[in-house]
Specification:
Helix 9 packs antiparallel against helix 10, helix 13 runs parallel beside helix 16 and helix 18 packs parallel to helix 21. This protein has 26 helices and no strands. It has 4 domains: 141 residues, no CATH class; 180 residues; 172 residues; 148 residues, Methane Monooxygenase Hydroxylase, Chain G, domain 1 (Up-down Bundle), CATH 1.20.58. The termini are far apart. It is an all-alpha fold.
């Protein structure tokens, strides 16, 4: 039982309440009738458990005392061991100090001895070296040809020969020229021979990429006057092979990276050597490559594309190679690039404007040729005005309107082609023009684009479109193509604005040329908008004029004043007008956008309202005819709902209310006139409509019109 208690006590976490619950549960389970409560049995169990726990506590207490005694003994034992170790450590420190003093003493004596030996050996070494040099010098001072010493003939002793001849050459420079001229000549000859052999050996080591040998030879040659020849030989041999086939730019950066690592290991002045390495690439390889590519100027467009590509790739190459240049050569690559392309950049702007002019002119000619159209001077505005005046005053049409079969002479494809050409030109201009000339060059290119695209294409098409709008008040329903002109003009203008924001404005912003650009753009847009407004006005006038004439000739008096009872339906004239107007409204919505759409629809609706209002004023209405008039107005109202204009809707609602005055009984006129719709209208308008009733003479002297006609 005690072992069971221990297991329960060792569980984490230990809860006293749970322990008592488990004890109670075990006691109840041991009884046969566990459903009854047995307090005596529980009491006995708790008493026995308490006794067991006391026994367990005594055992655990005894065990703890034994463990504590054992721990105390081990602690004393370890403390004694640590004390002995500390004594031994202190002894070792004392011995190490004594040993260090002895080592320092011996080292001092050795250094002193070394200095003494060096003082004795240095003069001796110098004497030996001087003796050797004197022996070599004697050979060159002797009359006759030089006896070739083994050191100069043995290829394996080239480094030693170089050291000797370099020192002899330095000594010979101090000899007087008179008696020693021949000796100096011999030394210089041998000096040049050894130097040449060193350079040849260096070239051989370079071919096999023997870096250590190259480094040794470069270090030796750095003391010779022909050291630059060694550098030149390295550069020439490194750049001898083609970089990357026909495209020179691909292989330059990897080539420079590879040789930069070698140059850093071989030469004592790697930055200077690398700068010369890159300088050689620009002045020889790149310059020759550019001259070859830009030699042919017959195809100007191809020449400009090639110039842009070469210049942009050279600038990128300069950026990539800048990490290999020294800080004092920061702008060297930029200067080299300018030197390569200086001749071509000088005449770039003139060629660019000439090329863009030719491309735009060709695109225009191709477009009009495809339409089989010969451009003519658009000077028919005065004639058009005279035709309108005569047609209005004399009610005759003196000339047929040329509508070119509905052709607008506007092409989005042509506009896109011109804009693409201009975008490419502006892109080249931004790169190839210097900072001071960029705004002026960009404005010139923009002027060319505006001239051909807007003046010679869009403006010309607008003039033709204006002339093609039918005269107002014709008896035949007008064929309207100007709305298509408006749609295409808007598309072209939007495309032009997009190009200007992305390609023109960045070139001229924050410069005096910006105001010039804004002024020209504003004048051009005002001219275009004026002609668009004029064309829209003429188109609306043509449609509304036809409505006026059609109703005037086709609306019968008996439609609104039938002599017999007829079915209450809309008149044929009204239905024909609505049928013709619906496609016009659809076309306007398709071709006009933005705020202009709402303005055009509102203007169209208000003019239509005026014509219908004036037309109704010319009629007389009996009861059956008034019903027909109301049906007609309802048809018009259905039609103008497509305009989405609150003003026009309100006007036709009022017209409908006015038509009700033609129908209501005389005794109800006062009530209708004071309704929400007509109450705020001028009394003269209401009175005019009431006078259109056939029974007006009968009711005008009655009290029904009191307050209306007074």
């Amino acid at each position: 039982m005690l072992s069971q208690y221990m297991e329960e006590f060792e569980q984490e976490p230990f809860e006293v309440g749970e322990f008592i619950e488990r004890l109670t549960w075990r006691t109840n389970n041991e009884l046969q009738n566990s459903e009854d409560f047995h307090p005596v049995a529980l009491h006995d169990t708790f008493i026995q458990t308490i006794k067991d726990l006391k026994i367990l506590q005594e055992k655990q207490q005894s065990k703890c005392e034994r463990l504590e005694e054992s721990l105390r003994q081990e602690k004393e034992s370890h403390a004694k061991k640590i004390g002995k170790l500390q004594e031994r450590h202190q002894t070792a420190i004392d011995v190490f100090g004594q040993l260090d003093e002895k080592i320092n003493s011996v080292a001092g004596k050795i250094m002193h001895l070394g200095e003494q030996l060096e003082n004795v050996n240095t003069p001796r070494s110098r004497s030996v070296e001087a003796q050797k040099l004197l022996n070599f010098m004697s050979e060159f001072l002797a009359a006759g040809p030089v006896i070739v010493n083994d050191i100069f003939s043995d290829a394996t002793r080239l480094s030693e020969a170089a050291d000797v001849i370099q020192k002899l050459y330095a000594i010979s420079q101090d000899l007087p020229p008179g008696n020693f001229a021949e000796s100096k000549r011999k030394i210089e000859k041998k000096y040049d021979e050894v130097e040449r052999r060193l350079i040849e050996e260096f070239a051989t080591a370079q071919k096999s990429e023997d870096i250590e040998r190259m480094k040794t030879l470069a270090q030796i040659l750095s003391q010779f006057k022909g050291y630059t020849q060694c550098v030149d030989a390295y550069i020439e041999q490194s750049q001898m092979q083609p970089y990357s086939g026909k495209d020179i730019f691909i292989g330059i950066v990897p080539l420079c990276k590879h040789h930069y690592e070698i140059i850093q290991k071989v030469f004592a002045n790697p930055q200077q050597v690398m700068s010369k390495f890159i300088l050689n690439i620009y002045q020889l390889k790149l310059h020759q490559y550019a001259m070859t590519k830009l030699e042919d100027k017959k195809d100007e467009e191809k020449y400009l594309r090639t110039l842009y590509e070469l210049y942009s790739r050279t600038l990128k190459l300069s950026t990539d190679l800048q990490i290999y240049m020294s800080t004092i050569d920061d702008d060297l690559l930029q200067k080299l690039t300018q030197q390569i392309f200086m001749k071509h950049l000088a005449g770039y702007a003139e060629m660019e404007t000439k090329c863009l002019t030719a491309k735009c002119s060709t695109e225009l000619d191709k477009f009009y040729a495809s339409k089989k159209h010969q451009k003519t001077a658009t000077t028919k505005g005065f004639r058009r005005n005279m035709e309108v005046l005569i047609a209005t005053r004399a009610n005759i049409n003196i000339a047929a309107i040329e509508d070119y079969g509905g052709e607008t002479f506007l092409s989005e494809e042509l506009a896109i082609n011109m804009l693409q050409e201009a975008k490419a030109s502006l892109k080249r201009c931004r790169l190839l023009s210097n900072e001071t000339e960029l705004p002026g060059n960009a404005i010139k290119l923009n002027d060319i684009l505006l001239r051909f695209l807007m003046h010679e294409h869009v403006d010309y098409a607008l003039e033709l479109g204006l002339q093609a709008v039918p005269l107002a008040e014709g008896r035949v329903f007008p064929q309207l193509y100007f709305f298509d002109v408006v749609q295409k003009t808007n598309i072209i203008v939007h495309l032009l604005d997009k190009l200007c924001h992305t390609s023109v404005i960045p070139c001229v912003s924050n410069t005096p040329k910006y105001s010039d650009y804004v002024f020209k753009k504003r004048i051009l847009m005002e001219q275009i908008e004026t002609k668009l407004d004029q064309g829209l006005d003429r188109s609306i006038s043509a449609v509304i004029g036809w409505v006026k004439v059609y109703l005037q000739y086709e609306q019968k008096k008996t439609d609104y004043k039938p002599e017999t009872d007829v079915d209450t339906i809309s008149s044929a004239a009204c239905l024909q007008v609505v049928q013709n107007l619906q496609p016009v409204i659809v076309q306007i919505k398709k071709c006009v956008d933005g705020e202009n759409l709402q303005n055009v629809l509102t203007e169209f609706g208000t003019r239509l309202h005026r014509v219908i209002y004036d037309h109704l004023q010319t009629m007389q209405f009996n009861t059956a005819g008034a019903m027909c008039a109301i049906c007609d107005v309802n048809e018009y109202r259905k039609c103008i709902r497509e305009l989405d204009s609150p003003l026009v809707t309100q006007l036709f609602d009022i017209l409908h209310a006015l038509c009700n005055l033609l129908l209501v009984k005389p005794q109800n006129l006062q009530e209708v006139c004071t309704g929400d719709t007509l109450n705020y209208l001028d009394k003269s308008v209401v009175r005019q409509f009431i006078q259109l009733r056939t029974d007006f003479r009968i009711i005008k002297n009655t009290n029904y019109l009191k307050g209306i006609i007074e």
